[in-house]
Amino acid sequence: MTSLSRWLPFGGPRTVTGPSEKVVVVGAGLAGLSAAMRLAGAGREVTVLEREDVPGGRAGRLDITTADGTYRFDTGPTVLTMPDLIADAFDSVGEDMDTWLDLEPISPLYRAFYPDGSVLDVHSDTEAMTQEITEVIGPDEAAGYRRYVDFVSQLYKYEMKDFIDRNIDSPLDLITPDLAKLIAIGGFRKLAPKVREYLKDPRTERIYSFQAMYAGLSPYDALAIYAVIAYMDSVAGVYFPKGGMHALPVAMAGAAEKHGVTFRYGTTVASIETRGDRATAVITEDGERIEADVVVVNADLPVAHRDLLGREPWSVRRLTYSPSCYLLLAGSSAHYSKIAHHNIHFGRSWQGVFEDLIDHRSLMSDPSVLVTNPTRSDPSLAPAGKEIYYVLFPTPNLDSPIDWERTKPRYRQEVLRTLEERGYVGFSDAIEVEDVTTPVEWGARGMERGAPFASAHSFLQTGPFRPSNLWGENVVFTGSGTQPGVGVPMVLISGRLAAERITGKDPNYRSRAMR
Q1: What whole-number distance in Å separates Cα of residue 469 and Cα of residue 297?
Q2: Is 480 a member of any domain?
Q3: Statement: residue 7 has pLDDT above 80
Q4: Of 177, 211, 232, which residue is a domain's last?
Q5: Hey, which of 147, 235, 348, 469 would disulfide with 115, CB 3.0 to 4.6 Å?
Q6: H-type alpha helices, 240-300
């Protein structure tokens, strides 16, 4: 029975109305899997429909086989943080994450290369990082780093419980004691000047503020609250699953299936059947009608509204989007002894990178790039003696006038030239297999504006101002396009928040992040 308290502020976050026993989840991305596991744990009958032949969504897998063996590429995120959030998803069905997933901490978290020739290894251990900064830059900067860790740790403590880890229906929901604490420590100031209060050297400033790019913003425009992303990886640590990042959705799907979730791969949903504001079924491309009490949608939110529900509210039409990226996956015979698992190569320009990408919607004139070498942690991902390189160059999204059909081959040469200049000597000649993704391909995979980082986290697209995860009486959204936002930790939380729109707040949830 529908309770009025479900819709009023004093009743807690809103939940779906009517029956909720039979749930159809559209999409087996990380958020959809997180929701499915929790719903199964709460006793719901769950069916997951996934258009691909494997789970994962953006955390996909591309295998390329050669005469020497198979290269196994992750096609999406490569940085995994906050494993406690993963463990909580497994716990919701009574499973131990460690029996399903072999996670290893990465050390260093990143290796940062600067145009002056200096190199800085980033560690999550405060003592190790203090020593690193002391040796590379100096003791004064190391002291500033320690004060910065104290700041972002406070930020995380105040932000997580009230602003990230719960469903928000109204800006009034933000009025908590922690809001005043966030204001007091400067959380609503601009990120770059806030970081400079602690870190005076441009090298440390860059490594602890580049994460704003994940939020789709320049650190000169982002609010300091987004330093919480720096906390999640540079303080809490970075991990890598044996078998690659795709091992995570495979493990989650396996645990969900063990506990009764039905997976139908190779099944594309064409639309959601509605009667008024109530979903009654999903319709597949083959014309099959699958009845549902509740529909959870893990497709990119604007695409879900427009293509599946056939309506696009103003809250979605108004959105602006994060930059995109050019991704080169390369199977190679070249080995580079001076790099780590994750490597960031900064150009001379820093503010100019964001001006190019966001203000001018043009390609970077002086690139800063991420190069990940997964075989450094798991050699089994490539044939014996071979390596995998994941090369990411940020680019504008499809709002830019760039003609990628013409630009793609030329930009490949620019990418290879930049890599050679940054120390990857012979990179081009050593490539044995490759795959390239531009904003056009991201868009073809269902990402609005070809933006894999979804809508930007500007103030008016954050928290209660980000599109809601609840539509009508019984459609729930999950993923990076809705609350709380982009990134692996956020979409895992998004899955739990989606489940709680159906089941009510999980009384057994004890996020370690909130302790």
Answers
A1: 9
A2: yes
A3: no
A4: 232
A5: 348
A6: 247-258
Prior bond of 108 cis (ω within 30°):
yes
Indicate whether 443 pLDDT > 50.
yes
Mean pLDDT of the chain: 93
Q: Which residues of 390-401 are buried (b: 16+ CB within 10 A; e: fewer)?
A: bbbbbbbbbebe
Q: What is the mean pLDDT of residues 98-105?
A: 97
Structure tokens at 291: 């009845």
Per-residue b/e over 226-245, b at no fewer than 16 CB within 10 Å? bbbbbbbbbbbbbbbbebbb
Query: Based on the domain organization, do 355 and 397 belong to the same domain?
Result: yes
Q: What local confidence, expressed as pLDDT, does residue 11 receive?
A: 53
pTM, to two decimals? 0.94
> Helix/strand/coil (H, E, C) string of 30-74?
HHHHHHHHHHHHCCCEEEEEECCCCCECCCCEEEEEECCEEEEEE
In a domain, 350, yes or no: yes
Is residue 374 within 8 A of residue 244, CB to CB? The reply is: yes
pLDDT class of 383 with cuts at 50, 70, 90 = very high
Choose one of 183, 206, 232: the last residue of a domain: 232
Which residue in 39, 31, 44, 59 sits closest to 478, CA to CA?
Answer: 31
The H-or-E segment that residue 26 falls in is strand 22-26
